[in-house]
Design brief:
single chain, 119 residues, mainly beta, seven-stranded mixed beta sheet, 11 strands, 0% helix
C-alpha cells in the first residue's frame, strides 16, 4: 500500500508561482510512475502531468504546458509540481497519484492540497 502526502498548496495572486510536493511511503518508489491531477469546484478531476519512474519521460495537459514542470527525486521518494504564471482557472484541489509500471490505472491517491489563484 502506497501512502502519498501532498504539501505546498496555498493562496497566490495571478502570475505567481507555487511548488507542490508529494512524498510517498513506498520503499520501491522507482516501481511507480507518478502523476498530478486536479479538481475544481463543480468539475471532474482532470489530468495535469505525469512522470516516468526515472524522470525520463513527462507529459502535460495542454492547459499547463510551458507553465508547469513535474519532477521527481527518487532518493527522497518525492515528486514535485512547479507551477509558474498561475491563472485563476488553475484554482483547484491538486492530487498526487501513483501507478505501478505497466499498469495504466492510478491506484494510489493523496488527500489533496488546495491551490487558490486570485485575480
Amino acid at each position: 500500500q502506497v501512502q502519498l502526502v501532498e504539501s505546498g498548496g496555498g493562496l497566490v495572486q495571478a502570475g505567481g508561482s507555487l511548488r507542490l510536493s508529494c512524498k510517498a511511503s513506498e520503499r520501491t518508489f522507482t516501481n511507480y510512475a507518478m502523476g498530478w491531477f486536479r479538481q475544481a469546484p463543480g468539475k471532474e478531476r482532470e489530468f495535469v502531468a505525469n512522470i516516468g519512474w526515472s524522470g525520463g519521460w513527462t507529459n502535460y495537459a495542454d492547459s499547463v504546458k510551458g507553465r508547469f514542470t513535474i519532477s521527481r527525486d527518487n532518493a527522497q521518494n518525492t515528486i514535485y509540481l512547479q507551477m509558474n504564471s498561475l491563472k485563476p482557472e488553475d484554482t483547484a484541489v491538486y492530487y498526487c497519484a501513483a501507478r505501478q509500471l505497466a499498469i495504466a490505472k492510478y491506484a494510489y491517491w493523496g488527500q489533496g492540497t488546495q491551490v487558490t489563484v486570485s485575480s
